Amino acid sequence: VGHSFPEQTLRVARNAPAALVTPSSVEPGSHASMLLSRPPAQCCSAWDWVGIYRLGSNERLGFVHTRDSTTPTVKLSLDQLIADAGLGEGVYEFKFSTSIDASPEGW
User: Fold this and answer.
1) What's the Cα-to-Cα distance from 72 to each of 18, 54, 99, 106, rounded to whole Å?
2) % of the chain exceeding 90 in pLDDT
3) Pairwise CA distance, residues 98 & 106, whole Å
4) pTM recorded for the entire structure
5) CB 44 within 8 A of CB 69
6) What digits encode the pLDDT tens for the residues 38-89?
7) Is there a contact between 17 and 41 (Cβ–Cβ < 8 Å)?
8) What are the beta bridge partners of residue 88?
9) CB atoms within 10 A of CB 57
């Protein structure tokens, strides 16, 4: 019998940001962080930001700036973002944006 890990996937992509959120499931008021890796084509601006959205929604509930204009990989605390957004039970996703990004997802 094979068991899948629905929240664990591997995406192979060139010039795309990558993120790891730990832990992937939290209780309200718990701690969480994100390790964000910005590829050379999208690095680096101190005003890069990561937004949090309900899964499948385009309505941003909150965001956090990277505050780092030199390091491609940064660790972000999500604690304040989660608290400020007042998240209830559900599944949420993160989206990255940067002023350096030439793609439609950027500024």
Assistant:
1) 11, 26, 15, 17
2) 23
3) 5
4) 0.75
5) yes
6) 888 888 888 888 999 998 999 999 999 999 889 999 999 998 888 888 888 8
7) no
8) none
9) 10
Residues 6+ apart with CB under 8 A from 64: 49, 50, 76, 77, 78, 80, 81
Confidence check: pLDDT of 105 > 70: no
List the 49-54 sheet strands across, edge first. 60-65, 49-54, 92-97
The full DSSP string for 16-42 is --EEEEESSS--TT---EEEEE--GGG
Helix ranges (DSSP H) in the chain? 79-85
| Residue 51 phi, psi dihedral angles, 5° rounding | -105, 155
